Amino acid sequence: MFSSNSTSQNTLIVSLKIKLSKLLLQPTFLIGIVLVIILSYLVIAPIVSIFSNSVSLTMMDAMLSGGKDGEFTYKYIDRVFTSSISEKIFWIPLKNSITVSFFATLIALTLGLILASLVTSTNILGRKYLGFLLIIPYMLPSQAMATAWLTMFKNRKISGPQGMLESFGITPPDWLAYGPLPISICMALSYFPFAFLLFSSALSKIDIQLEEVASTFGAKTKAIWSKIILPLLIPTTMSVLLLTVARTLGTFATPYILGTPAKYTLLSTSLYSSVRSNDSGVVAVIAIVLSLIGLMLLLVDIWVVRKWQRFVTVGGKGIKRQPSKLGVFRMPTTIFAWIIFLIAALGPFIVLALSTLMREPGNFAFSNFGLAYWTGVNVPGMDQPGIFTSPEVITALKNSFLIAGSAALICGILGLLIGYAVVRLPGTLISGFLRQISFLPYLMPGLAFAAAYLSLFAVSRGPIPALYGSMSLLILVMVVTYLPYASRSGISAMMQVGPEPEEAGMVLGAGFWRRITTILAPLQKSALIIAIILPFITGMKELSLVVMLVTPGTELLTTQSIRFLDFGYTQLANATILIIGVVVMISVLILNRVTKTNLASGLGG
Amino acid sequence: MSEIKLKSIIKNFGGNSIAVDNLSETFPAGEFVCLLGPSGCGKTTTLRMIAGLETPDSGEIFYGDKTFFSSKTGELIKTENRNLGLMFQSYALWPHMTVYKNIIFGLEMQKKSLEEKEKRYLELEKLFHLENFRDRYPSELSGGQQQRVALARMLAIKPSLLLLDEPLSNLDSNLRLEMRSELKRLHHNLGCTIIFVTHDQMEAMTLATSIAVMNDGKIEQIDKPMEIYNNPKSLFVAKFVGSPQMNIVNSKKDEKLATCLSKKINIEKEKVKNFGIRPETMKMVKQDDGDINGTIETIQPTGADWIVGVNVYGKSLFLISSDPPIGKENDTVGIFFKPEDCHSFDNNDLRIIKN
Question: What's the pLDDT band for A317 if we cut at 50, 70, 90?
Fold first, then answer.
């Protein structure tokens, strides 16, 4: 008895010894475990908190109705789905959201497909430039299009300076100025570059030999497109469709700017007003609904991708498709593509810029132009300093750089760390868990996630103090929301390098830290720069995620522009948006310089 | 210089099949051992476990009097401290370091003085004809040059054990021939133990002093190259080594041909599941002059010799001859084979040793 006991104890000690030395051999394990703990808290806690908020009585309601604070209740679920105000806060916004998403997606998809086909496969004039120019709208913050629209089509219904058309004596009707039509168009123009990018990449991936085979059977260009290329694009189309719908549902700026004057509410703006009125139970319920819709769309997307897997074409020899000659259609299609560029990218810029340079809208007299809105100490008629002297703008600019910058820095490093742990610990629980959990925030729309963070960090919990009103909350929420993108690019960067360079160092006697500093870090330098710049760009444009978390003092450029709009200072709002646009453009140029490639699908938000 | 001893090594990656299945083998000091086998047979895993890049689930690995790993005592020496040379299929040259930096990396880890590094570098530079490449980056080198840099980097620290993981597969055939002789010369000059992983039986035959044929995580046979070729211990080894492959005649499916073969080598047909004849051991003769008649189906000249497909009782046999075939397609010819060149394998696919 005794002897067998002692041998089993011995083997236990031996196996523990091996486990320990393996652990020391691979500090990756420790990194992985630390990441698991941090991410579990940052990702899972908000989700749990939002679910619990949806069914527990708030203190306010407890006092009003005589229940106990935190008591289990169906009150908020009832309020959203069945009460007398449910029409107003949920059902009508839901219907509006569906309508707007439907039309916006339809337009974005069609534009994206047509333009991608023209640019990748025809001899349209300026195709080299269009490939880059057409994705510019994607880089602009989503409120740029909306404020440009408002600057153009605004009528007397709301206060502030005249709209441009009105100053020419044309009064745009309400349906053109506010509500579903402009919202759909603006969203479509903001999101079509996404479809354009995906379709372009799908088109360039289709093996040209598939088309050449068809042409040996006598198929003409038209037949090749209808019988071969377009059917092969079905899976891409489905993906574009679902992702664009998901994006439009989560967009806040456009419906807020163009819908509010006409009292046209979408789910996102309804959620925002519930936050404003401190109705945390209702916020939680709507956030859950938004997340479920997001989850459903994602599941459908996964299912579609799997179902259409057989359509995945294995890359051929990388021969580029010869641009087909458009003949008489060359001019009309060229004009069409450039007009889209004009409306979606250049137009908003010009409108925004003009509005900040003209003292009175619509008056093109030379004397009417000036820099008052930019450099003025006291802008006439507004009792506000110009952009460059406005303390609000300067604070917001500082905050934007500080918050988006720190979030991007953390995100980039975290993404690569996650990538390292996932790739170097294949087949382990840690690897699988990290992969899944870092993807989880992708399912929740930014608004819902922000709502969750709001409720979680409004009070101090455990070692973490109450963060509401602090910059760290904004940084934290950005980091977690961008984590899916960061970790995915981190994983692929690590995959690309593979274990060999490190193993070669190991064999020659380099220890862990030595390998990280002399081999891995230099190899991943450009991946790291990209991993920082991409979230920085997204962070500079971010609105929906931060709009309900900012407080006076932590305003960002994006939220400051919304404040200006709220007060009717359209020109100041426009100038602020232009500043964001410029910062983003410069970042994109740096990014292009670093990657030496066309910036592609990495841009989120 | 010492021998490598593997004892009951088991490694499982969690899939359905086991990567290395209870492997016990000793690779003698100074040998050039080839681990040969199809992809997924566990050869690279075995090599990586010797290097310490993977840890076995259980078993022991000894190098001379050093214990690299033992699941019995819990000993484990880190890769960093095993002092061996390893070369990858991709070479794994660091793209951000110059040729010089790459090669002296190992010496730098050992904190060698500048003079020592310089001296060793100059030696290696000469040995591998790398003059003028000192400040180049790996991407500015050709495949063959990269390979030589990788070899130099590996040898800089004078390891007594070299592990090579398919180092020739990324080269074109000319360069491969050149590199094969280079490796052979290197082994001869350095006298160190080399373990070499490959799936290319030609490479194994030409380089190794002994070949270990692996299949499904086990070593099927370890022997001198010609022994492996002439006396394969199992059907798997027989089929894997040799190109074109050995002709396999199944006693059930190709009954008539099998009967003829069993008579020729004087063995009971019932005992044999498969017969094997190497293509170059058969001779094509005039109709009715050989042991059996067949119809020529295909003739493939390779330049040096001819590969002829002959249909015998519905079974296609391939012959190689350095003389032009005596007939053309659809002609009937005779085939002659020597009994000592006919292999026979039992129901467990093991060689039947004739007495």
Answer: low
Inform me whether the pLDDT recorded for A314 exceeds 60.
Answer: no
Give the mean model confidence (pLDDT) for residues A200-217: 80
**Residue A429: its chain B contacts at CB < 8 A?**
none
Q: Closest chain A residue to B110 measured between Cα atoms? A: A509
Nearest by CB: A14 against B72, B90, B92: B72
Which residues of chain B have a CB within 8 Å of the CB of A501?
A: 92, 94
Count of Cβ atoms closer than 10 Å to residue B109 Cβ: 17
Domains, chain B, ordered by start = 4-239 (3.40.50.300), 246-345 (2.40.50.140)
The question of ipTM being above 0.85 is answered as no
A22 to chain B, any CB pair closer than 8 A? The answer is yes
Please indicate whether, in this complex, the C-beta atoms of A500 and B90 are within 8 angstroms of each other: yes
- pLDDT over 70 at A548, yes or no: yes
Subunit contact B94:A17, Cβ cutoff 8 A: no
Whole-number Cα distances in Å, A223 to A217, A226, A321, A333: 11, 5, 16, 20
**What pTM value is reported for the model?**
0.78
Among left, alpha and beta (phi > 0; psi -120 to 50; other), residue A544 is alpha
Partner residue facing A510 (CB), from B14, B80, B154: B80
| Whether B96 and A21 lie within 8 Å, measured CB to CB | no
Which of B58, B78, B149, B153 is the best mutation test for A, with the most CBs of A within 10 A? Answer: B78
Which CA distances in Å does B175 have to B124, B172, B187, B201?
20, 6, 18, 17
The C-alpha atoms of residue B94 and residue A500 are separated, in whole angstroms, by 10
Residue reference for tokens 């004809």: B129
Between CA A251 and CA B43 the distance in angstroms is 54
Question: What local confidence, expressed as pLDDT, does residue A260 receive?
Answer: 87
Instruction: Give the position of tokens 């007009």.
Output: A339
DSSP A320: P
DSSP-assigned beta bridge partners for residue B295? B311, B332
**Which among B55, B73, B105 is the nearest to A505, CB-wise?**
B105
Q: Which residue of chain A is at minimal alpha-carbon distance from B58? A: A15
Break chain A into its structural domains and give their ranges: 75-315+326-370, 377-605
* Residue numbers in chain B where pLDDT is lower than 50: none
B282 CA to chain A: closest CA distance, Å? 43
Of the options 3.40.50.10730, 3.40.50.2300, 1.10.3720.10, 1.10.260.40, the CATH number for the domain spanning A377-605: 1.10.3720.10
Q: What is the pLDDT of residue B278?
A: 93
More confident residue, A3 or A365: A365
> Is there a contact between A509 and B81 if contact means CB atoms under 8 Å apart?
yes
Query: Could you tell me if A350 lies within 8 Å of chain B, comparing CB atoms?
Result: no
> How many other CB atoms are there within 10 angstroms of residue A16's CB atom?
11
* pLDDT attached to residue A599: 44
Of B76, B80, B93, nearest to A21 by CB-CB distance is B76
pLDDT digits (tens, 9 = 90+) for A425-438: 877 788 888 888 88
Q: What is the pLDDT of residue A1?
A: 40
Residues A75-315+326-370: name the CATH superfamily. MetI-like (1.10.3720.10)
Output the pLDDT for position A600. Answer: 41
Contact A105, A215 (CB under 8 A): no
Peptide bond into B244 cis (omega under 30): yes
> Would the CATH topology of A75-315+326-370 be identical to that of A377-605?
yes
Q: Does B119 touch chain A (CB under 8 A)?
A: no
B314: left (phi > 0), else alpha (psi -120 to 50), else beta? left
CB A454 within 8 A of CB A477: no
Question: Would the CB atoms of A18 and B157 count as touching at under 8 Å?
Answer: no
Q: Which of A499, A503, A508 sits opposite B105 (nearest CB)?
A: A508
